[in-house]
Amino acid sequence: MNLNSLCYLGLGFISIILLIYVCIKTGAKHALLTFMAMVGLGYMIEGVIYNFLSSYQYYPNFIKHDPIYDSAFGAIASNALTLPVSAVFLAAFRKSWLWIFMMIGLFAVIEWLFLELHIYKHNWWKIGYTSFGLFFYFLFVKFLYRKLSFPLKGFLHTFCLYLIISPFAGTLHIVPITLFNNRYYEFGLFANQSKDTIAFATLFYLCESLVYVFMGKLRILPRWVKYLATGLSMYSANLILKGAGILHSLVWWDIWYYIVLSFLALLFTEYISKCLYKVTVHAKT
Predict the structure, then answer these.
(1) Which helix (H) or strand (E) holds 122?
(2) Which residues make Cβ contacts (< 8 Å) with residue 283, sequence separation at least 6?
(3) Would you give the DSSP letter of residue 117?
(4) Is 56 in a helix, a strand, or coil?
(5) Is the four-CA dihedral 206, 49, 17, 137 of positive or negative sign?
């Protein structure tokens, strides 16, 4: 294990400890729902600026055989742990503007340090862009945390449900590709095959998450019919992509894994949907 991996793992470990602390002090359900929604928001932002606009590159050295897949792991570590945990901490303990600016400053220092250590690289991105974006990211978490104190309905329920489901589907969609090379996509967005794969996988999971949310909220069909329709939709989407020459499966279990994933994602969607309909625990102050 080298310096690159230790830095990324260290940030991840600190983030997990902080999340556990927030859950103990403020109520696990409320904190975790907010955390998962902020992961989803981070994934969506990162999907644009990192996957499609090539803003920066991570070097965590977790995956040796492919620098693009290795960088994707660094992106997941950042957006699935460090940033959303920090946001939930600020919201759960109702931290002041001073705390928000201090947190932004801390991330600016960490970003600068990672650049100096050459474990992270800017292409056209600037530290100032990160700081500017984090200001609105931290403002949004305060709004979201308050809203999740009450039952959600209508558009806000659907939106929060999508924010929570999409990173679940996205992580479980992309991680096997980076670790096991079970498939790759050839869509033509980028010349590099790995980058093209990650970019199209991002589009895929964002679209499939819409299906999960729709099916999860659909009440006119029996539950077994919804699961059957979801599995068939995933199977059909994979066959269409294979027929179009976009999807290339490299192992026998590839398509079956994503069918099973669709069942798990729908199950998770139904559970989260029920949680969002109920009042969560207010933070203790």
Answers:
(1) strand 120-122
(2) 25, 26, 27, 30, 92, 93, 94, 145
(3) T
(4) strand
(5) negative
Burial 81-107 (b: 16+ CB within 10 A, else e): bbbbbbbbbbbbeeeeeeebeebbeeb
Output the six-digit token pair for 225.
Answer: 């019919």
How far is residue 178's CA from residue 54's CA, in Å, rounded to a whole number? Answer: 18
Query: Which residues 6+ apart lie within 8 Å of 122 measured at CB?
Result: 55, 56, 115
Question: Can you state the percent helix, strand and coil of the chain, rounding each to 5?
Answer: 75, 5, 20
47-56, 72-81, 116-125, 132-141: range with lowest mean pLDDT: 72-81
pTM for the model: 0.95
For residues 209 and 182, the answer to whether their CB atoms sit within 8 Å is no
- Other beta carbons less than 10 A from residue 158's beta carbon: 18
Structure tokens at 177: 């590709």
Q: What DSSP state is assigned to residue 283?
A: P
Question: What are 89's two structure tokens?
Answer: 């901490």
pLDDT on residue 284:
45
* pLDDT tens digits, 200-250: 999 999 999 999 999 999 999 899 999 999 999 999 999 999 999 999 999
Neighbouring residues of 222: CB distance < 8 A, sequence distance ≥ 6: none
The two tokens of residue 41 are 């928001």
Task: Look up tokens 């059957």; give the residue.
Answer: 228
